[in-house]
């Protein structure tokens, strides 16, 4: 037995032993942040843990956290493949090209990349309809703001983030025609220091409801200190700001991780571009503050139900961009492919998409 | 009372034994750390320190990791020898990555044999320019080099982020902050089939030997050493301090720039926002661990590369969280520096009353 553990330590024979029948199905995860970020990577890891407990001994999961989106990513993904993982989830956009490169070299391993747009024989993609959660956030922010100024902390000006800003503003405008939105970009997914600075800068400009497309709870903490309201991102962040917190739009990757693992195990997996939202319970509203006005609470539930049932789709025309061009024609709803290319602000956002 | 006193003649035996002693102490404390966590300490140490060198793929990846550390570390060693406290290798590396990538994108549809050399030269020149500005400010206005080089790191980072979101962004990339993939004509050739070992690593090793030759075999190197050891004496001897400062800074800038362009045209193959996970800062550790000796920098950069890779492997093979790996690495660096310190200095206890 000592000899065997030595081999495991070497990591050389791991792929050989994975082929043996009694070995569990191995699933690897690559995270861009620390699992303790309490946001994006934390939620992916929660999904991994649920996957683990769902399959018990049949599945063995491994993760690597804090992987930089540079030259290191390809090595880490390769090492996971070499260690005998049968299915590997890479959970950040910057892992796209490294995942594609490794997928070519390991044709027998299945790869799944979150938020990207490149697919191949053994590489699929998956993404959340975060804009559905944003729409509910926008409606709530539009109703809750007293200064008619809501704030948004952006990470990177990519379609996912721009799309969410649009959904937020359209929603706020639908309930409050006088609302204005201020946007600050921090060029990071996780940087509590910069997120705090951005939050304070927005509050100084009169913002009284704060939203974020970054992963740390820092903006909520800032909102709590300054006595304004805020909406949590990616995970339940209520405990960081008991008074300021309105609700959190929580990501839940577990249903997808379980479904995908099953399909790879029984051989039915095919590369696809998967979008999951309220309908798949991959997005939910967590810890809705009990002290909200009843009318606001009712509107939150109504909007959520309408989107979840598919009765209402936020990106349905006519929609104009903020330069006056019609970007979604009357009667048309943006397809997933079109959603993936949104690079305009909707009418009324007095700002320019950073280029 | 405790006094720290420089030893007049550090023991030559201890100079050799010091790193071994530090490693022994680290292994001891590391074993305790891993045992407390319920991990097999022998296996953990094996994965952390030996597995990164256990097969040809891992050795190749170790070299890929070592390349930029060594290029930056060699340049910094020379700067620090001459008392030029250049903390700006990171910025110079990013400038090189940016300038080189702009050139590589210019050659996107070119078949020219000069495309790669010109791309590399563009990276080198960008690194030199980035080193030249703080050098000029120091020599002309006596500004603090540490502060200006740190600030230039941030300027370079934001320039790069701006470029990759704007002018250098892939027009077909759905707005994601990445450049197009470079064409094969501007990619550094790999040296071995199936590995990522590229020409840049050869450049790094050569630079180490060139720097060693300059420092120990030329009059210029003699001047640098005298200048660093005793500035008044150097001035008295009539050495041109400005010329020496310019030389070491531009040399370091050129190497860091080469490191940057070698990352983007090597293992990454495009310009991304996260070119460097902090190579320019880690290179400061490389320079000091290598005792400001260019050949010492080679050993130190291998050592750091192994540590970083071991951290990833420990997560994959044994599920050891990255925070624990970070602690282990910190302990190792602590003992290395502490042992070094006590070889150069002695601690004496004196009774206050007898003073």
From TrEMBL, chain A:
This is BMP family ABC transporter substrate-binding protein. InterPro entries: ABC-Purine-Binding, Peripla_BP_I, PnrA-like. PANTHER family: ABC TRANSPORTER SUBSTRATE-BINDING PROTEIN (PTHR43208:SF1). Keywords: Signal. Transmembrane segments: none annotated. The lineage of its organism: Bacteria, Pseudomonadati, Pseudomonadota, Gammaproteobacteria, Oceanospirillales. It comes from Marinomonas transparens. The keyword Signal applies. It comes from the Bacteria. Residues 26-303 form the ABC transporter substrate-binding protein PnrA-like domain. GO terms for cellular component: plasma membrane. The keyword 4Fe-4S does not apply. Residues 1-21 form the signal peptide.
From TrEMBL, chain B:
This is ABC transporter permease. One of its GO terms (cellular component) is plasma membrane. PANTHER family: ABC TRANSPORTER, PERMEASE PROTEIN (PTHR47089), GUANOSINE ABC TRANSPORTER PERMEASE PROTEIN NUPP (PTHR47089:SF1). It comes from the Bacteria. Keywords: Cell membrane, Membrane, Transmembrane, Transmembrane helix. It is a multi-pass membrane protein. It is found in: Cell inner membrane. GO terms for molecular function: transmembrane transporter activity.
């Amino acid at each position: 037995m000592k000899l065997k553990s030595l081999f495991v330590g070497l990591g050389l024979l791991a792929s050989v032993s994975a082929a043996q029948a009694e070995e569990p199905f191995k699933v690897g995860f690559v995270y861009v942040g620390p699992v303790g970020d309490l946001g994006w990577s934390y939620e992916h890891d929660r999904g991994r843990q649920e996957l683990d407990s769902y399959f018990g001994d049949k599945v063995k999961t491994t993760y690597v956290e804090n992987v930089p989106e540079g030259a290191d990513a390809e090595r880490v993904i390769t090492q996971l493949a070499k260690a005998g993982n049968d299915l590997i989830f890479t959970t950040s956009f910057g892992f796209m090209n490294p995942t594609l490169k490794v997928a070519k070299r390991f044709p027998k391993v299945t790869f799944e990349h979150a938020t990207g747009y490149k697919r191949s024989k053994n590489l699929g993609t998956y993404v959340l309809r975060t804009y559905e959660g944003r729409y509910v956030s926008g409606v709530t922010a539009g109703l809750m703001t007293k200064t008619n100024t809501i704030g948004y902390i952006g990470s990177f000006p990519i379609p996912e983030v721009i799309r969410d800003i649009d959904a937020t503003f359209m929603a706020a405008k639908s309930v409050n025609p006088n609302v204005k939105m201020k946007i600050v970009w921090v060029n990071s997914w996780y940087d509590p220091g910069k997120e705090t600075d951005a939050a304070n800068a927005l509050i100084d400009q009169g913002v009284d409801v704060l939203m974020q497309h970054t992963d740390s709870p820092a903006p909520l903490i800032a909102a709590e200190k300054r006595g304004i309201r805020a909406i949590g991102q990616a995970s339940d962040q209520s405990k960081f700001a008991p008074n300021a917190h309105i609700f959190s739009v929580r990501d839940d990757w577990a249903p997808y991780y379980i479904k995908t693992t099953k399909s790879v195990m029984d051989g039915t997996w095919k590369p696809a571009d998967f979008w999951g939202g309220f309908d798949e319970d991959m997005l939910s509203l967590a810890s809705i503050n009990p002290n909200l006005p009843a009318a606001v609470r009712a509107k939150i539930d109504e909007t959520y139900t309408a989107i979840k049932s598919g009765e209402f789709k936020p990106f349905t025309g006519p929609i104009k961009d903020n330069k006056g061009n019609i970007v979604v024609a009357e009667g048309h709803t943006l397809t997933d492919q079109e959603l993936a290319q949104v690079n305009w602000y909707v009418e009324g956002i007095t700002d320019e998409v950073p280029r | 009372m405790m006094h720290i006193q420089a030893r007049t003649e550090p023991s030559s035996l201890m100079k050799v034994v010091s790193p071994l002693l530090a490693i022994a102490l680290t292994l001891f404390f590391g074993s305790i750390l891993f045992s407390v966590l319920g991990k097999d300490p022998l296996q953990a140490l094996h994965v952390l320190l030996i597995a990164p060198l256990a097969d040809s793929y891992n050795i190749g990846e170790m070299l890929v990791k070592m390349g930029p550390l060594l290029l930056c570390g060699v340049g910094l060693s020379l700067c620090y020898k001459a008392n030029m406290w250049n903390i700006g290798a990171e910025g110079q590396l990013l400038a090189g990555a940016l300038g080189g990538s702009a050139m590589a994108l210019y050659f996107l549809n070119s078949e020219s044999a000069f495309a790669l050399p010109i791309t590399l030269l563009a990276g080198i020149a960008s690194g030199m320019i980035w080193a030249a500005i703080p050098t000029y400010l120091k020599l002309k206005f006596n500004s603090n080099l540490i502060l200006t080089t740190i600030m230039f790191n941030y300027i370079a980072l934001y320039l790069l982020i701006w470029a990759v979101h704007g002018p250098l962004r892939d027009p077909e990339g759905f707005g994601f902050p990445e450049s197009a993939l470079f064409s094969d004509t501007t990619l550094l050739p790999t040296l071995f089939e199936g590995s990522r070992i590229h020409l840049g690593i050869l450049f790094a090793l050569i630079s180490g030997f060139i720097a060693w030759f300059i420092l120990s075999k030329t009059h210029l190197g003699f001047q640098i050493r005298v200048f660093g050891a005793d500035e008044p004496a150097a001035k008295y001897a009539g050495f041109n301090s400005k010329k020496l400062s310019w030389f070491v800074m531009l040399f370091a800038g050129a190497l860091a720039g080469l490191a940057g362009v070698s990352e983007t045209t090597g293992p990454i193959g495009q310009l991304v926002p996260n070119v460097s996970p902090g190579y320019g800062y880690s290179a400061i550790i490389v320079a000091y661990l290598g005792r400001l000796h260019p050949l010492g920098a080679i050993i130190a950069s291998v050592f750091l590369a192994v540590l970083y890779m071991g951290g990833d492997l420990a997560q994959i093979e044994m599920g050891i969280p990255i925070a624990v790996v970070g602690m282990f690495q910190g302990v190792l660096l602590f003992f290395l520096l502490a042992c070094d310190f006590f070889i150069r200095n002695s601690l004496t206890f004196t009774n206050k009353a007898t003073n």
